[in-house]
Amino acid sequence: MRLLESVARHEHGAPAKQLAREAGLALPTAYHLLRTLVHEGYLHREKGLFFLGEAAERLSRSGAQQKRRSTIADALGSWRDSIGAPVYYAVYRGGEIEVECVADTPGNPAVEEWADFRETGHAHAIGQCLLSQLDAEGRKDHLDRYPVRSVTPYTVRDDQTLIRRLESTGRMQPVIERQEYALGTVCAAIPLTLGSTAATVALSMPSHQAERLLPAARRLQSEIDTLMGTLAVSISI
């Protein structure tokens, strides 16, 4: 690991003797480890210099993804505690709705995914918020694969009604949904459009607390704005 760290510090590569010295290893030991790391793909050697290999770069990408998830999870947990409601983070990636992180508590549990979130984007605030950020072609592609269908008695009835609703959604305004996905639950989703990524942070509440929903969504949006720089970096990784 010390050898990998030493190589990572040298963008233009470094020879074995220098790496051994920096890692505090005897030269024969360093040579043996460097050959092993090259064989396993963690390093590659070119003209006597060692560089990070593809396997090490995969580790780096995995580390970046873990950092992203940790950053988002910390933010969601903070918002959950300050607002007193479950908070969700989701993105639209590769034509699919992906709920990547949820922060809830036993006293304020998240909505149970009783019908696949990916297939029922028309019914819940998360899906409606993400679909509202797509262009017409993207929405059509999604609805061709996942047609509108009744999930509860309050679910939107057909594609055209849904599309009109999505088109009328104000830019960067919360999307509100009341019992369309789960009876007894109301939800709000805040749009986050960063580059080509459609994303959202959402919250849910029992329907008997519906009067709290919009004020809580406004507060969530305000708190998101204060952390947008950090969140933007996390989403873009």
Automatic annotation (TrEMBL):
Entry's Gene Ontology molecular function annotations: DNA binding; DNA-binding transcription factor activity
Alphabetical GO biological process terms: negative regulation of DNA-templated transcription
Keywords: DNA-binding, Transcription, Transcription regulation
Lineage, broadest ranks: Bacteria, Bacillati, Actinomycetota, Actinomycetes, Kitasatosporales
Protein name: Transcriptional regulator
Keyword Transcription found: yes
Coiled coil regions in record: none
Domain of life the protein comes from: Bacteria
UniProt cross-references to InterPro entries, sorted A to Z: GAF-like_dom_sf (IPR029016), HTH_MetabolicPath_Reg (IPR050707), Tscrpt_reg_IclR_C (IPR014757), Tscrpt_reg_IclR_N (IPR005471), WH-like_DNA-bd_sf (IPR036388), WH_DNA-bd_sf (IPR036390)
Domain spans labelled HTH iclR-type: 1-54
Domain IclR-ED stretches: 55-237
Pfam families linked: HTH_IclR (PF09339), IclR_C (PF01614)
